[in-house]
Amino acid sequence: MALKSFIQVHSDSHFPIQNLPYGVFKPQPGGEARPGVAIGDFVLDLSAIANAGLFDGPVLKNSDCFVQPSLNKFLGMGRPAWKEARATIQKLLSFDEPTLRDNGSLREKALFPMNKVQMLLPIVIGDYTDFFSSMHHAKNCGTIFRGPENPIPANWFHLPIAYHGRASSIVISGTDIIRPRGQGHPTGNSPPYFGPSLKLDFELEMAAVIGPGNELGKPVDVNEAADHIFGLVLMNDWSARDIQAWEYVPLGPFLGKSFGTTISPWIVTLDALEPFACDAPKQEPIPLPYLTEKKSRNYDISLEVEIKPTGQEHSSVVTRSNFKHLYWTLTQQLAHHTINGCNLRPGDLLGTGTISGPEPESHGCLLELTWNGQRPLSLNGSTRKFLEDGDEIIITGCCKGNGYNVGFGTCSGKIVPAPL
Amino acid sequence: MALKSFIQVHSDSHFPIQNLPYGVFKPQPGGEARPGVAIGDFVLDLSAIANAGLFDGPVLKNSDCFVQPSLNKFLGMGRPAWKEARATIQKLLSFDEPTLRDNGSLREKALFPMNKVQMLLPIVIGDYTDFFSSMHHAKNCGTIFRGPENPIPANWFHLPIAYHGRASSIVISGTDIIRPRGQGHPTGNSPPYFGPSLKLDFELEMAAVIGPGNELGKPVDVNEAADHIFGLVLMNDWSARDIQAWEYVPLGPFLGKSFGTTISPWIVTLDALEPFACDAPKQEPIPLPYLTEKKSRNYDISLEVEIKPTGQEHSSVVTRSNFKHLYWTLTQQLAHHTINGCNLRPGDLLGTGTISGPEPESHGCLLELTWNGQRPLSLNGSTRKFLEDGDEIIITGCCKGNGYNVGFGTCSGKIVPAPL
Ligand SMILES: [Ca+2]
Ligand SMILES: [Ca+2]
Ligand SMILES: [Mg+2]
Ligand SMILES: [Mg+2]
Ligand code: NI
């Protein structure tokens, strides 16, 4: 029989006892930030569980890793700590276990209705890297900007391309995104355009949250890379296409990206995703040995993007994609990132790049969906080439199990006007 | 008469009482990290001065900003705190002031011979950005890679181009640099090259250390940008040209840079550099209004790069350049960085890009000095196209005042072999 919690969980919930994703929250405004785990419509306060002495396994017994305003310390402890925490929490929440179930005063202290708490960035992010691992996205962007002959650069099939992103402007789901101002291509002999971005876009991504990491100069083997990944979040890499197009030669994206990046509050662990692992696409040519893994795995995670224009009652689904479409795996990304000796630290974030699938309706950004504005999308009566002020973008991600989901909740943000 | 300290300072020292650069040090291995100021051959321990109650001005009186393992808290306090600290320290160290001069036990606690202490990274670096602000460097690189017609991209004269760098691998002067491994361009139908970089290079740079910074969504005005810059350090942006050349299309440099970046330990403040301010080069075309400043200023800072091959007794000077050659000013870099709303935080690092001057001997990297390996440099009998294992690179920077220097000391690092 399936594992079940004494807390009632709807069958369509993203957060049954099989999931147990980690976040950081404040029970009320002004309260102290602390780690928590989602269970149904509740958040389990891990600092309360730790203070009650219920993390009693050998790794966590005397640790203060859950009495912290971020998950970084716990992430740095690695897989033995993660396994033990998951086992302890799953047991505590299970239907047959009286410890928490029958202790009213502890339940009072440790369980908060999710709709009452404030979710925060769960990690302190030292460095944020964004990859470019969907072949469909690379092909579409290349076709739009350079034409249909050789749209994908020669290096793309040999290495997981990436750039360093801006860590300071990563925000938690629900934070408004201020439309950036910046320069765009000049027309004729005029000076460059300057003003609010005219081509504001979302990018449907997921991101890996790094665990222990590695010392400078010591690469991580691709077959051991999974031990350095704690879990995944949903990510929206907001992009100003006009700013990006003008600035990116020769050093890559900068201000076209750095005004804001949104992540979802719940980190779903690789342990919870394990039942949804699937084979990654076949790679041709075969990558160099440092990128060749014994087993190349993706996860079957359904992803959706909705746009909700201001004043409209309903949102429109504009993208249905899946994590399994990624060409380069998370473990290949991580091995490549460290092959030159670059050090990763607990809490670092590795974005996958826009996750586009093969079908037109699975394109992960408006640049692709509207073919750079040439084919406007229709949304419940209005149309969109790019995002307008007031538009809210809602990303969801979910794995469908047998009678239960392992979901990510949502990653949302609303565009507000540029400063005058 | 010139300001003078009771501590004897050689006339060729970089650290007279006119300078007073900030760093973080441990008096002995295993000791606690704390902020200090360089004076001649000594380090003044600011935690000892603070604990003695000698920061008694209105801003710093009750602050613990000097009882910290980094300068970030002090940086975040802004110019009023910086001015007050400088005035207090300059007075305490001055020839006529008995407070410290005549207090033997305080001197014992607060002054350490510089050659006995261990210098550390002075700041926790949230984000590191590298600009591309030398026209000579942009022109040389463009000519080498794309030929002499239009070597500088069209956007270059309209905006200070930059990319996000890797913060985790920034190390303090004196740290060995492990030769990175990585992929290089395939030849013919072979797979890409994989192995230790064959084109390892230095880049002569300086970097601005950010003070208070700005809120997400609130750009900094170019005419107020100087208040957000605490001071400058020397920087060596080590670069693997073969890795960089193969990976950088279309998202910019990544593993070709992220294996290590070295900074000098002493942050020289803008206040100390003020006497060496000079006009920046005339800009044509005139930049957009958000980049147009009332006064466009550089600093006259002489820069040198020496290479010391392993086993050779003497180093050879390979570059003599100057900070004043930069086309885009620090304040323009900062205003551009924030114009899209991107937030800067205390301790963020903004590299200038390679500082090449107009003459061939002022080229700031081997790529330019040897014209991508085509014209080897001669060094005391040996030659170099790119760096070899055992080579030590030593960057120095110094402003020449009337009878005194305001210097940066050195920024050095030695290449050690790649892992097997
Ligand atoms: Ca992206
Ligand atoms: Ca550089
Ligand atoms: Mg972004
Ligand atoms: Mg570097
Ligand atoms: Ni001396």
TrEMBL record, chains A, B:
<feature type="active site" description="Proton acceptor">
    <location>
        <position position="137"/>
    </location>
</feature>
<dbReference type="GO" id="GO:1902000">
    <property type="term" value="P:homogentisate catabolic process"/>
</dbReference>
<keyword id="KW-0460">Magnesium</keyword>
<feature type="binding site">
    <location>
        <position position="237"/>
    </location>
    <ligand>
        <name>Mg(2+)</name>
    </ligand>
</feature>
<keyword id="KW-0106">Calcium</keyword>
<feature type="binding site">
    <location>
        <position position="146"/>
    </location>
    <ligand>
        <name>substrate</name>
    </ligand>
</feature>
<dbReference type="InterPro" id="IPR005959">
    <property type="entry name" value="Fumarylacetoacetase"/>
</dbReference>
<comment type="function">
    <text>Converts fumarylacetoacetate to acetoacetate and fumarate. Involved in tyrosine catabolic pathway. Catalyzes the final step in the tyrosine degradation pathway.</text>
</comment>
<dbReference type="Pfam" id="PF09298">
    <property type="entry name" value="FAA_hydrolase_N"/>
</dbReference>
<keyword id="KW-0378">Hydrolase</keyword>
<comment type="similarity">
    <text>Belongs to the FAH family.</text>
</comment>
<feature type="binding site">
    <location>
        <position position="132"/>
    </location>
    <ligand>
        <name>substrate</name>
    </ligand>
</feature>
<feature type="binding site">
    <location>
        <position position="248"/>
    </location>
    <ligand>
        <name>substrate</name>
    </ligand>
</feature>
<dbReference type="InterPro" id="IPR015377">
    <property type="entry name" value="Fumarylacetoacetase_N"/>
</dbReference>
<protein>
    <recommendedName>
        <fullName>Fumarylacetoacetase</fullName>
        <ecNumber>3.7.1.2</ecNumber>
    </recommendedName>
</protein>
<feature type="binding site">
    <location>
        <position position="354"/>
    </location>
    <ligand>
        <name>substrate</name>
    </ligand>
</feature>
<feature type="binding site">
    <location>
        <position position="257"/>
    </location>
    <ligand>
        <name>Mg(2+)</name>
    </ligand>
</feature>
<feature type="binding site">
    <location>
        <position position="130"/>
    </location>
    <ligand>
        <name>Ca(2+)</name>
    </ligand>
</feature>
<dbReference type="GO" id="GO:0004334">
    <property type="term" value="F:fumarylacetoacetase activity"/>
</dbReference>
<dbReference type="InterPro" id="IPR011234">
    <property type="entry name" value="Fumarylacetoacetase-like_C"/>
</dbReference>
<dbReference type="GO" id="GO:0046872">
    <property type="term" value="F:metal ion binding"/>
</dbReference>
<feature type="binding site">
    <location>
        <position position="261"/>
    </location>
    <ligand>
        <name>Mg(2+)</name>
    </ligand>
</feature>
<feature type="domain" description="Fumarylacetoacetase-like C-terminal">
    <location>
        <begin position="131"/>
        <end position="411"/>
    </location>
</feature>
<dbReference type="GO" id="GO:0006559">
    <property type="term" value="P:L-phenylalanine catabolic process"/>
</dbReference>
<dbReference type="InterPro" id="IPR036462">
    <property type="entry name" value="Fumarylacetoacetase_N_sf"/>
</dbReference>
<keyword id="KW-0479">Metal-binding</keyword>
<dbReference type="GO" id="GO:0006572">
    <property type="term" value="P:L-tyrosine catabolic process"/>
</dbReference>
<comment type="pathway">
    <text>Amino-acid degradation; L-phenylalanine degradation; acetoacetate and fumarate from L-phenylalanine: step 6/6.</text>
</comment>
<feature type="binding site">
    <location>
        <position position="237"/>
    </location>
    <ligand>
        <name>Ca(2+)</name>
    </ligand>
</feature>
<dbReference type="InterPro" id="IPR036663">
    <property type="entry name" value="Fumarylacetoacetase_C_sf"/>
</dbReference>
<keyword id="KW-0828">Tyrosine catabolism</keyword>
<feature type="binding site">
    <location>
        <position position="203"/>
    </location>
    <ligand>
        <name>Ca(2+)</name>
    </ligand>
</feature>
<keyword id="KW-0585">Phenylalanine catabolism</keyword>
<feature type="binding site">
    <location>
        <position position="244"/>
    </location>
    <ligand>
        <name>substrate</name>
    </ligand>
</feature>
<feature type="binding site">
    <location>
        <position position="205"/>
    </location>
    <ligand>
        <name>Ca(2+)</name>
    </ligand>
</feature>
<dbReference type="Pfam" id="PF01557">
    <property type="entry name" value="FAA_hydrolase"/>
</dbReference>
<feature type="domain" description="Fumarylacetoacetase N-terminal">
    <location>
        <begin position="18"/>
        <end position="122"/>
    </location>
</feature>
